[in-house]
Amino acid sequence: MADGSGSEENLETKLVAAAAGPPAESSGGMSWLPLSSEFGRRLIEQSEGRLRDLSWFRTDWQRGGALTGYAIWEEGGEALPVVVKLPVPPRERLWLKVLQGAEDVAPRLLADGDEVGGYDLAWVVMERIEHGPLGTAWGGVEFDLLIEAAARFYKAASVFETPEPEPEWDWHALLERARKKVRDIDITEAKRWKAALKSARKRVDGWAETWAQRPRNHWCHGDLHLGNAMTRSAPPGGPALLFDYARVHAGHWLRDAIYFEHLYWASPELLDGRKLCNQLVKAMRQQGVEVEEDWAEWAEAYRALTAMMVPLRLQQEGAPVYVEAALELLEKHV
Question: What are phi and psi of 79, to 5 degrees?
Answer without folding.
Answer: -105, 105
